[in-house]
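_Backbone structure tokens_
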Amino acid sequence: MRTRPLPFFSGGSRLDADLHLPDDGGPGAPYPVVVVASGFQGLKVIHPERFARALTPLGYAVLAFDYRGFGQSEGERGRLAPQDWAEDVRAAVDRVAAVKELDADRIALVGWGLGGGVVVTEAAEDPRVRAVACLNGIADGTRSTHNMHDEESWNRLIERIAADRGRRAENGRSEITSPWDIVRLDLDGQTDTYVGDELYKAPGFGSGVSLESADMLLRFSPERVVGWIAPRPILIIHGDQNELHRPEEAQSLFDHANEPKQLVFLEGYGHTEFMFDDHPTFKRMVATLDEFLANALRPQPPVVG
């Protein structure tokens, strides 16, 4: 895999990004390109780079980036708004479409976790995107977040969000809180363990987020727009034991989507415990993704006449 910086601007902020290319010396160019969107906390060094390591040997170029306000990207620290992130993905598409080594007619989006909903939202209004894959994603922010909580912690979060609306309207600032006050991990033991053991290795992971971010998340509903992606294809892959983003998220997204669409449940697996480069389930997911992308990103025949 060859890697070089490919920063770009979104919403006036310079976003840190890397372009990963197949290590074939260049004869495969212009390459089909996959923009990979991270999940909650928005860091390229976690799963986006993992997908780059898996997909570049298969002939794809992969763009991995930090969302605005996270990692090495500019932007307001602590603001985690999926609506903003969809604009970041759109700007990423703008950037890769202008790189001559990449095929602007063969662009796909892959989103992990919250990023799965983000790529659905971006692709719904961007016809340049040829294919979309949502992996362990969400279909509705209110439902998926509510399902992470017990009633006591959910009601407390709703009360804090309501109070924060008035505070930021008056003072222009939102309260910063732990990200795990919003995305509650401790009710999903497998994910909680994986996050503690693996994801905190990434610098900056677990940084505080604003209550305005929670407000924006609850207003985020990719299922409302997923039907607009057709006739372009969508692939939805989800762990059938996922206790963080429950399987109903995948099923609802699939039900709201139009053909062509594909739903694959990973039997016996949850949200993220299999996310290691050499894990058989991760490899199986990549194989499914490769088959989907290969079909969706076939070069278009030249127009005659």
